[in-house]
Amino acid sequence: MLIRRCAVLFLEPREDLDIDWAALFAGDAALGANIRWMALAAHLGEEVEVTLEEMAALGGIGLTLWQERDDCEQKFGAAAIARLLQTGLLIGDDDDHNAHFRVRDEVLRSQNWRPLSATAHMFSRWGDMRVDKGMQFPSFEELVVSYGTPPGPAIERAAPGDAVALPAPERARLDDTLFQRYTGRNFDGAAVLPLATAARLLQRAFGAQGEREMAPGAFVLKKLSPSAGGLHPVEAYVLAQRVEGVAPGLYHYHPVRHVLEPLAAMDTTQTAELAMRMVADQDWFVDAPMMVVLAARVERNFWKYRNHAKAYRALLLDAGHLSQTFYLLATEAGMPAFVTAAVNEIDIERVFGLDPLKDMVIAVCGCGKASGAQDTVEMRYEP
Ligand SMILES: Cc1cc2nc3c(=O)[nH]c(=O)nc-3n(C[C@H](O)[C@H](O)[C@H](O)COP(=O)(O)O)c2cc1C
Description:
- By secondary structure, the chain is an alpha+beta fold.
- The chain has two domains: about 1-110, no CATH class; about 175-365, NADH Oxidase (3-Layer(aba) Sandwich).
- The protein has 13 helices and 14 strands.
- The chain has helices at about 20-25, 50-60, 70-75, 80-85, 100-110, 115-120, 140-145, 175-180, 195-205, 270-280, 300-305, 310-330, 345-350; strands spanning about 1-5, 10-20, 30-40, 50, 65-70, 90, 210-215, 220, 235-240, 250-255, 260-265, 290-295, 335-340, 360-365.
- The strands form four sheets. It has a six-stranded antiparallel beta sheet with strand order 11-10-9-12-14-13, sandwiched between helices.
- Helix 2 (about 50-60) crosses helix 4 (about 80-85) and helix 3 (about 70-75) packs across helix 4.
- The protein is globular, with a radius of gyration of 25 Å.
- InterPro entries: Bacteriocin_Proc_Enz, Nitroreductase, Nitroreductase-like, SagB-rel_DH_2, SagB-type_dehydrogenase.
- GO terms for molecular function: oxidoreductase activity.
């Protein structure tokens, strides 16, 4: 049997601090520190604790060339090799032996991820995160009690006398929309989003306004937000709760054909439960009649930006631009919107059928009619 190391692997010396009660009562230093080595392998997405012997094997077996298992066992010990194969940190070439690890490793290799970016993405995802499981939204008052006051909202980088005074901006066309935009946290749970509004929002925020062939077979879309390399890899997946003429459920929005492609039908209890789960228990968003998951097709971006130090950052920026355009369109339609990165990516991947090594869930947006209540804080512009 031939083996090699998984493609992307980082090892972190993790320090756990413990109170040593015996030492405390004996009057000695009571804080004990314990270091464990954690293997962070992007194709697994789950941490694996490794021993020093296993680390030596991981450091000695390369990720490219296949080597005889027997030779590796002789060098690094049969027990270490067996455990590393069993945990998926080493990959075997045979079909019966944990072949699913090889498949995941190959998916990762095929996408051209930068190793650090793949690791950052795979290990920052949440699954089933809820308020009662450690999802916390401390108030500003609580934060100040814990950490003192935050760094000030603005800084000076020059003496006041050296600063160049600028004229006050004149009012202009965009102002009405910009000043009315705010993050809604009190949605009307009965209101239905009119189809025409939903359609305009989706088309102007996520739809193509044109298509251009940059080289034979290499197409880019023109959208109303900027995108790194013009690639527009961020896809919009819709959770429709109450959209006029659209059955509750999950859809993919096709940016060229301007259609909603049905993925799963649901009843309204299921859509409400899923909405809550998607935004990790942020119940102030759940009444939004339409939510949109922003998920980047990394392969499209990494086709150009292969193993690139800036590519991951560019994907996050792309999603940020789309969400701002979404906000402004919702504002124009007289509605608040929201965007949140505090989402349960793993649950979202599961229901929409997305592979996190290929389709990177970045954020969830939503919008809907305001209820008029102020149960949860909002920050509206006050002249
Ligand atoms: C990347 C990002 C993540 C956010 N995540 C959350 C969130 O998890 N929960 C929430 O209530 N608001 C979230 N917001 C909204 C911000 O709290 C909001 O934009 C900010 O308080 C300013 O208010 P405004 O948008 O009404 O001007 C997020 C905004 C951004 C840009």
